[in-house]
Amino acid sequence: MTFSIVGLCPRTGQFGCALATSSMAAGGRAPFVGPGIGVVLSQARSDPRLGVIGLRSLENGRAAADALSDMIASTPHSAWRQLAVLDRSGAVASFTGAHCTAEKGAQNGHGAIAIGNGLASASVPSAMMRGFEAAPEKTLADRLIMALEYGLEAGGEAYPLRSASIKIAHAGIPFPPVDLRVDFSEEPIVELRRLSELWEPMMEGYIKRCLDPENSPAAASIEGHIAR
């Protein structure tokens, strides 16, 4: 039981995903982001192996719909899975198995797709897409979290939320510089936004520490603005 959004920012070339759910630590098993490759979600009764298969298909040049077909064909349990794929061109594809918990569904957007199962309302995916598309001038991280917030306002999941995550790849960087998780919280989307707002001014410093350590700032100077 999860609601999720996958999206591409054509302005920056960034792509990624965000999700919220009643299960603990879903960010460790449902979202898969490959820099320069694409994004895969494997949720409902999640199987992380399908995420690995989806990214491998995208890396081999398969389009979103083809990677989705590869994931479905790889398992005898597809009826229990809800899947979404975004390829590097911005094409999207999704699948919702017959045994996924109702309410369930998907909503396509421009270079984006919202999916959910175990929802309090069938309108949640369309509400998420409205949130994602409401402010295209904002950062992709902000837009993805806005999508979760809109989805929650539309009813969210039928059960109390416990975890949330966001993961984003940036053009030219060989790892996702945004990879934040709230594994257990009474208000995981609120906490995810708080973490995202803390991380945004630190991010470039930590990217530089990876790519150019000799000329990079000390961690203390990166994090010096945080009230302790």
How would you characterize this protein structure?
This protein is α+β, with helices and mostly antiparallel strands and 228 residues long. It has one domain: Aminohydrolase, N-terminal nucleophile (Ntn) domain (Glutamine Phosphoribosylpyrophosphate, subunit 1, domain 1). The mean pLDDT is 96. It starts with a strand and ends in a 6-residue tail after the last helix. Strands 7-8-1-2-9-10 form a six-stranded antiparallel beta sheet, with helices on one face. The chain has a four-stranded antiparallel beta sheet with strand order 3-4-5-6, with helices on one face. It is built from seven helices and ten strands. 31% of the residues lie in helices and 27% in strands. Helix 1 crosses helix 2 (64-73), helix 3 (124-133) runs antiparallel to helix 4 and helix 4 packs antiparallel against helix 5.
Structural features:
228 residues, alpha+beta, Glutamine Phosphoribosylpyrophosphate, subunit 1, domain 1, 6-stranded antiparallel β-sheet, 7 helices
In short:
The protein is α+β, with helices and mostly antiparallel strands and about 230 residues long. The chain has helices spanning about 50-60, 65-75, 125-135, 140-155, 190-200, 205-210, 220, and strands spanning about 1-10, 15-20, 30-35, 40-45, 80-85, 90-95, 105-110, 110-115, 165-170, 180.
- What's the CATH topology label? Glutamine Phosphoribosylpyrophosphate, subunit 1, domain 1
Count of DSSP strands: 10
Instruction: Kindly provide the radius of gyration, computed on alpha-carbon positions and rounded to a whole number of angstroms.
Output: 17 Å
The total tally of domains equals: 1
Report how far the terminal alpha carbons are from each other: 36 Å
Poorly predicted spans: none
Which bin fits the share of residues in helices? Answer: 25-40%
What is the H level of CATH, i.e. the homologous superfamily? Answer: Aminohydrolase, N-terminal nucleophile (Ntn) domain
- Shape, principal axes of CA atoms: globular
Number of helices: 7
CATH class: Alpha Beta
- The CATH architecture would be 4-Layer Sandwich
The assigned structural class equals: alpha+beta
Q: Which strands sit side by side, in order, in the main sheet?
A: 7-8-1-2-9-10
Mean pLDDT reading = 96
Percent of sequence in beta strands: 25-35%
